[in-house]
Amino acid sequence: MRPAQDNQGSFLGRISIRRNQFVDVNNEQEQEDLELFQKHIADRFTELLSPPSQQPPSDETNTVASVAATDQIMSVTWLRKLMDVFLCCEAEFKAILLMGRDPTQISKPPFDRLVPEMLDRSIKALDICTAVVNGIDSVRHYQRLAEIAVAALEQRPLGDGNVRRAKRALANLVVALSLEDKENVSGGGGGGGGGNKTTERSWSFGRRSGGSSAASKGGATIGQLKSSSWSVGRNWSAAKQIHAMATNLTPPRGNEAAGLPQPMFIMSTVLVFVMWVLTAAVPCQERSGLANHLPVPPKHLNWAQSLIGIHEKIGDEWKKKEKKGSAGLMEEMTRMEKLGHSLIEFADGFHYPAEKDAAESATAQVAEMAEICRRMEEELVPLQQQIREVFHRIVRSRAEILEVLEQAGKLSAPVV
Amino acid sequence: MAEFESMIPVPGVKNHVFEACHHVVKALRASDNNLDANLRKLLSDLESHLSTFGIVDTKVEDTGFSEIQERFKEALKRILSWETNQSMILEAGLSEADQFFQALYEVHTVLMGFKSLPIKTSRKEKDVYNQATVALDIAMLRLEKELCDVLYQYKQHAQPEYLAVSSRGKDIVYDESFVSLDDEVVIEASSHKDDEHIAGFQNADLVDPSVLPHIKAIANAMFACEYGRAFCEAFIRVRREALDEYMFTLEMERFSCVDVLKMEWDVLNVAMRKWTRVVKIITQIYLASEKQLCEQILGDFESKSFACFIEISKDTILSLLSFGEAVALRSCQPEMLERFLSMYEGSAEILLDVDNLFPDETGSFLRMGFHELSKKLADRTTATFLKFKDAIASAESSRPFPGGGIHHLTRYVMNYLKLLPEYTDTLNSLLQNINVEDSIPEKTGQDIRPSTFSPTAKHLRSIVSVLESNLERKAQLYADESLKFIFMMNNFHYMVQKVKGSELKHLFGDEWMRKHIARYQHNVTDYERSTWSSTLALLRDNNSVSTLRERCRLFCLAFDDVYKSQTRWSVPDPELRDDLHISTSVKVVQSYRGFLGRNAARIGEKHIRYKCEDIENMLLDLFECLPSPRSLRSSRRR
């Protein structure tokens, strides 16, 4: 977290401060806190939108050394930063909401409506966390396919057999990367029916004699390793949850805009946004339509500028990809797909012994792919753990809020 | 099957073989000649391979390129012959399998030989190398298929008895939610923890042990040829599916947090019960066996063995954790106490198993997940316990309970408490730091069981005290003083019976029992005084204000009133009812008989409405909870 006094605070003056019924005794202190909160949100997302140390976008063909800035939007590093940002915002928000506050205050209107709505959103976010943790498992599967291809193509001298093996892995990889979640999930079982698109769990008990046809054809599996078609629950849909989280999310108006409803609105917006980004990044159970429909906060809100900026970037990318299908927008996956296609091209044209030029350009691509795998190896599991951490944090905060509400209930209940 | 690795004649490898043999010899010495069948088989396989090994080794050294080429062609033919053959190599017999591995070995030799050659090689040699890479890939793909087929075909499940999900499924009383109590007729049911028979499990063979050497040979071959990743991918995929299938057989469905929070109590109850069972079976039996399988097959590649195990189990573990976490999100309803207790107990019980399953860094998040969940469930359980007490304290009624019988609240609470002694240890640990007021002063002594003053005992007594206060308040709702006593008597008697007839007696202790028996006996006395003392006073001789005839008439009128109201009262316990009948009868009939004996002549027979036998018979109708007042005359029976 940055120190409170900061040179970016100039917009603070423009926020009109009005006294109203929601502002309690420590009116000025509270106003200050609220403004600081907004400023921190703005700062954090600005940094996410354009990291201070960002290099000029590197040439795609420019290989390992300059392989894009590691914290480019949607890269795994960036996603981890996003999780940190979320945790910081959340901690600060909770302090504003609960610290030193009279419990009865958040049980009175309009909070009797706003607080339950917020808690409801947090429950939905929990399920999204679960789905995303699962989705990252799929990404780890892609990583392993890529590693197989890399290992095969690194063989020297490169023989037809190595290329054959790499091509098989790459073919599985690019198919998996371009599949939308629905197909992705049930195709993953591998053994059985291949392109099984049922939404119910499809158990392949009758496999005993059939053997594993897909395995014999393809070696590694198409799609994910997930053999259940839902990771969260029957008929659960990320898209529906995100929509439901966003439906009653409207900026506070009038008197409310200067009080506690404002940070509540901000935090909820951040929550919905972060969950939306996660579902965009990795395979996630049922997310159709999410590319287009995420209500964003009004543009005139200062704290929201960078968040809107990020949203637009991701949204544009998503819309492009949605048509041809994509397992996720994680930057590494996108690059993996591109490299996968061009290495397949190389493999298709390969004749033993390798021609020097072709081999050299392939070497560079293989090195880049290896670099992506390395980064995934380093960062995917920590990302998973951060998301679990987010999960636990949301649970804790919810419990603390409920506790305060219960206290408030006791205080306001008539003494028998 | 012999170690494929050790057959590869690459410089440096020989030393490894040498060292490995040393180890084997040492280990054999240490084993005191006690070899199990598997090991014995392994060693004899090794022996048979050694015999071929010698021949190969000399030939490689002695022959020229053309001979290598010849042998490679043979090997290629063999490998290709299996490429299209869909049946299992294993089923073609051991020697067939051996020949396949031998062919693979030839191919591998060519590859390794070529790699160690100086850069300048002939076109012909290069071609052979290239063909060898292809042959190797074909063989590896074939082995991958073989691996999947064998794993499917020889898959076994954990013992069927673990599979049976209890059909008991429901406890009638405890499916009731606490709030619906007042209107419901409560059927008593005994409950058992349904997982007793899980105790004493053993690891199961998840794959037929007879095919393990074959699978191991595949693993060794694939790892030696740098296809270890492909092996792991296929292995994980098939085993993960087997686990999913097992979960499906256990009927463990996945629910989102949103689902769990919305769930009706009866559905949730069943799901919680199932979870408690499944989490034990999965961690203590299934995953323990799975880990053993991974070690048996991939033990030589230790890190791989563990990585595979985690990949196989992770998804299922996370789904179990997430149900537990979702349940802990619910506000604690008092009726969830026992379910929470058993979930908590289950989660605490498996912690050691989980620690063993995931001992190191890679699995730490799964291990931590369970520890955190267990803590969370402990909190929820304690909170629910306290909530249970609050709920009893605040379960107010606005109308008097009809007939003065045993209130549903008493039934519910006492039957619920009966479930808790099974969890005494767990409860002790949860409640030890929570102070509570006890109705019995703490004592020690030879005849006092320590359990009587355990945290659980104190808290249970305190719950019953809360119940008692609540009943006192309910009793105040009766307009009729006597009915108040009957109500209290019934309920206290019920409490005593429930304590006496269950494990609760050791917790509640003798002193509690004595006090409470005295309490309801006192209610009996109070009742008799309040109902009968004024009525019987009419029969006493010293009362000379009115005439005998008038007193007799007044007595019968008063008796009618008592009869009319008290036949509708209820004393559900037959013994208690009998006792009450007898003691009432003794007092009333004796007084009446005495009165008539002394005064019948003076009153005149036609003014005596009831004979002694009438009174005696009619008294038997009291507390029978009759639907409407009987017409007095016709009611004489027995």
Automatic annotation (TrEMBL), chain A:
Residues 185-221 are annotated as: Disordered. InterPro entries: ROH1-like (IPR008511). It is a single-pass membrane protein. It holds the Pfam family ROH1-like. Residues 186-196 have a biased composition (Gly residues). Its main location: membrane. GO terms for cellular component: membrane. It is found in: Membrane. Transmembrane segments: none annotated. Residues 201-221 have a biased composition (Low complexity). Keywords: Membrane, Transmembrane, Transmembrane helix. The keyword Transmembrane applies. Belongs to the ROH1 family. This is Protein ROH1A. It comes from Cardamine amara subsp. amara.
UniProtKB/TrEMBL annotation, chain B:
GO terms for biological process: exocytosis; protein transport. Residues 274-621 form the Exocyst complex subunit Exo70 C-terminal domain. The keyword Transport applies. Keywords: Exocytosis, Protein transport, Transport. Gene3D superfamilies: Exocyst complex component Exo70 (1.20.1280.170). InterPro entries: Cullin_repeat-like_dom_sf, Exo70, Exo70_C. It holds the Pfam family Exo70_C. Component of the exocyst complex. This is Exocyst subunit Exo70 family protein. It comes from Cardamine amara subsp. amara.
